[in-house]
Amino acid sequence: MKQKTTAKTSYHIPIGPIHPALKEPVYFEFEIDGERIVNVDVKLGHVHRGIEWASRKRNPVQILYLAERICGICSYSHPAAFALAVEDMADIEVPERAEYLRVIQAELERICSHILWAGVAAHEIGFDSVLYLTWEIREKTLDLTEYLTGNRVTKAIMMIGGVRRDITKDMIPKITKTLKYLKDNFEKLRRIFLDDKTVKMRSQNVGILTKEDALKLCAVGPTTRASGVKKDVRVDTGYFAYGDLDIDYMTPDVLTGGVNGDVYDRIIVRLLEVKQSIELIEQCLDKMPSGDITAEPKIAKLLAQLKKVNGEGVGRYEAPRGEDIHYVKLDGNDAPFTWKVRAPTYNNILPWIPMLKGEQIADIPIVAASTDPCISCTNRVAIVNNENRYELDKEELHRLSIEKTRRLMK
Amino acid sequence: MRFSMLPQVFAQLFKKPWTNKFPAKYQPNNTTKYLADVAAGKAKINPPIPTPDGFRGKIQYDKEKCIGCQLCIKVCPTEAIEYKPDEKKIKIYLARCCFCSQCNDVCPTNCLSMGDEFLLAGTDPYEKDLIVE
Question: How many domains does chain A have?
């Protein structure tokens, strides 16, 4: 029998939605030619939890704790962005001391998140001893978080108009002790990640995101800074007390003098940010003025004040993974009229496509992990019709939009 | 550079393990029997690491002080608190509680406080240990 020859040489590999290599449900479809990835398609929408819907029955103080549960690692970022949005709308003046306390908590979370990521990245390339080392360091940071806020992960420290717990004088020795420990171990981490041959072999010239692509695809956070785009909400808008602190964009050229936009650069950016965060906490402890920690200590009064507000607000916050945007609209009821969350990973999904194209199958885990994806944060919409999930494409959306305009014109 | 991890590895060999073996050093063959033994005083539990100050554990409720103002019900994010209108007191379902301590902050008479008990897992959400009233 004569063998048929086909022109098609590539084949498809579906990975996910549930897969041992993935920490959260996401669906990839790879078009593979030999070992090379020719094309990638990413599909989301497997972990939609209806958090925004749940907010329709809650008042802003209750939503703070709901926002905390959007993401386990950014459990400070989401309430912070929500509080910024509400304060923006209700013109609440936050006391200066509270702004500094907020920065301390934010930077502590950033250290935890980046060190956790470093461990996961090491695990993805099979360097498990580093995973244990980084998580040991993270444990110390979590101990400090527990000491300052009461719990390790769900901190419940954010309040509209301030924070809920103060840092008293007798707490400062423990903070400085942990910061010293972090600084001592940071040098060790830096050596392992930046000088080690294993890490260099797997991360240099892998998963390149060019500056043009980063700008075009609106990548945020360390992913875009590693490609040389100077974008950081902390510097750009100077929310909380960041305007008073010495802070600059962390791009890889600070250390190496050049920008490649590969996985190695993303490691550099995150490590530099850990160092920056330690310095920011020290600055805050030095400069922190005394005073109130919240604008309105009586919650019932605050809720009554928010009930009178009629308007919309936007909160922009630099989460460890990038810019987190919350949009809130209050219309005089207890519950908000609407609340919309845009988690940073939403912007960092599309950059996966240029990063993964042309790479090998074995590079998928480290390249995907290099943007520090958080899929559950990202899943905000699920479209259901007659109990069947369906997708909307651009034409369909456009058609629906035109229909709505016509409906409204009637 | 090649063996840069070796000092750490050797140091680790002689260090005391970080993990606190809680509640028992080794997994008991029969957990239910082990817990029954602990309750009867035959076996001993390896104590957990003490919780720090300000830890948010099981809610303590001082019923005498409560005036039934229902502010805690208004701020509870998980709707874990139920109002008992005939007594004018509250009932807290810990199985729903998210331990944010917002009810503690809002309480005008300070009748609620956070304890340090954290072993609150159970099979029945309405069991006696998980309801504070």
Answer: 1
Name chain A contacts of B114, Cβ cutoff 8 Å. 150
- Tens digit of pLDDT at every position of chain A (410 positions): 556 666 667 888 888 788 776 778 888 888 888 888 888 888 887 888 888 889 988 999 999 999 998 888 889 999 999 999 999 999 999 999 999 999 999 999 999 999 999 998 888 888 888 898 899 899 999 999 999 998 888 888 999 999 999 999 999 999 999 999 999 988 888 888 888 888 888 888 888 999 999 999 999 999 999 999 999 999 999 888 899 999 989 888 888 888 888 999 999 999 999 999 999 999 999 999 999 999 988 998 999 999 999 999 999 999 999 999 999 999 888 899 999 999 898 888 888 889 888 888 888 888 888 888 887 777 766 666 666 666 666 677 778 778 877 887 77
Note whether B5 contacts A: Cβ–Cβ < 8 A. yes
Q: Is the CB of B102 less than 8 angstroms away from the CB of A195?
A: no
Residues B71-106: b if buried by 16+ CB within 10 A, e if exposed: bbebbbbbebbeeeeeeebbebbbbebbbbbbbbbb
On whether the CB atoms of residues A245 and A103 are closer than 8 A, the answer is yes
Structure tokens at A233: 């909400």
Structure tokens at A333: 């009821």
Residues of chain B numbered 37-56 and touching chain A (CB < 8 Å) = 52-56
CATH of the domain at A115: 1.10.645.10
ipTM score for this prediction: 0.86
In a domain, A24, yes or no: no
- Cβ burial of B59 (10 Å; 0-12, 13-18, 19+) is buried
Q: What is the dihedral of CA A338, A343, A346, A351, to 10 degrees?
A: 150
Cβ contact A326:A160 at 8 Å: no
Residues from chain A that touch B1, judged by Cβ atoms under 8 A, are 195-197
Domains present along chain B, CATH in parentheses: 1-49 (no CATH), 51-133 (3.30.70.3270)
- The dihedral over CA atoms of A289, A291, A292, A293, expressed in degrees to the nearest 10, equals 30
Sign of the alpha-carbon dihedral angle for A75, A81, A82, A87: positive
Q: Can you give the residue range of the structural domain that contains A86?
A: 61-336
In-domain check, residue A319: yes
CA–CA distance from B94 to each of A27, B58, B74 (Å)? 37, 8, 17
Q: Are the beta carbons of A303 and B76 separated by less than 8 Å?
A: no
Q: Is residue A7 part of a domain?
A: no
8 A C-beta contact, residue A141 and residue A178: yes
Is residue A255, in this structure, part of any structural domain at all? yes
